[in-house]
Design goal:
Oligomer: single chain
Order of helices and strands: HEHEEEEEEEHHHHEE
Radius of gyration: 20 Å
Number of strands: 10
Structural class: alpha+beta
Number of helices: 6
Strand order of the largest sheet: 1-6-7-5
Length: 271
DNA sequence: GGAGTTGTTTAGGA
DNA sequence: TTCCTAAACAACTC
């Protein structure tokens, strides 16, 4: 589930604990989500630290802590993978089976759950944001996400299907499978089209719709997890026998770029 | 019981 | 070399 807007919603769940102090850390050290992470260091440094602030970039999350005795910041990075979730719970929360990391604060508990464990945890103790957080691409809703940037990428990977490009986080950070299909549907572009063959107006539409879909998702899912606006492909794409909200044509489902892809054969003609 | 899954990395083939 | 596909990761649902 976690794409851009779900990730932002999860960030907000934990952000409600900012300003509060960590009293205890409970984690399942054998969980795969800790494969890039020094668990012992985390367990040593987080208790007593104060949760300062958080940030999201695409599907990545960063949580900042001030350590007990001052000195360098503590940086906790999270990726939700396919099934990761962040919740907050009462301070007496008892961790469940797939709760791999629980930060107990004075007033609440912050819980990271991930049944499939494709997610991951990073941890660092250093003055500046660590390498896994630096050099991130500009957010799609930011001014740095320019048409030029998208066009040069479409050109560079011109032989690949445009659906595959939308899933590449270095240019479309936060876009996942359903958002990629939503963007292509709104831009009326067939997902299997070669990126280099898009016309100038199609390239422009792709750029514009990427921004609109991200904004719309952030304003709905990202705020309180309610569904995206009416009329979006989102509402029908998982239904059996779903129909295009614009043309009423039966939607088509096929694997493109290794992922289940949904599109309208009338609105998104192959040409 | 088998197939499929809203993600990412990596091995290996073309 | 370069580009791209498919498998692997793990657990749940249909």
């Amino acid at each position: 589930m976690p794409e851009l807007a779900e990730v932002e919603f999860f960030r907000k769940q934990w952000e409600s604990g900012s300003g509060d102090t960590v009293t205890a850390v409970e984690l399942n050290g054998r969980a795969r989500v800790f494969r890039d992470c020094d668990i012992a260091q985390m367990q040593r440094l987080l208790p007593g630290a104060r949760f300062i602030s958080s940030e999201a970039n695409g599907k990545k999350l960063l949580f900042r802590f001030a350590s007990l005795e001052g000195g360098p910041r503590l940086w906790l990075g999270l990726h939700m993978g396919m099934t990761g979730k962040l919740t907050n719970a009462p301070p007496a929360y008892a961790p469940e089976r797939h709760d791999h990391l629980v930060l107990f604060l004075e007033k609440q508990a912050l819980v990271f759950t991930d049944s499939r464990q494709f997610g991951r945890v990073h941890f660092a103790h250093e003055p500046l944001a660590p390498s896994w957080w630096r050099h991130l691409p500009p957010a799609i809703v930011s001014a740095g996400f320019t048409l030029e940037r998208v066009e040069s990428f479409l050109k560079r990977c011109g032989r690949r299907p445009v659906k595959a490009l939308l899933l590449m986080q270095e240019v479309f950070p936060g876009v996942g499978n359903w958002m990629a299909d939503e963007i292509l549907w709104r831009a009326r572009i067939h997902p299997a089209r070669a990126a280099g063959e898009l016309t100038q107006s199609e390239r422009h539409d792709l750029w514009r719709e990427a921004r609109l879909v991200c904004r719309g998702a952030l304003r709905t899912i990202g705020e309180d997890f309610r569904d995206p606006p009416e009329g979006w492909l989102f509402h029908v794409r998982w239904q059996k026998g779903g129909r295009c909200p614009r043309s009423c044509e039966s939607l088509v489902y096929e694997t493109i770029a290794g992922r289940t892809t949904c599109w309208c054969p009338r609105c998104q003609a192959k040409r």
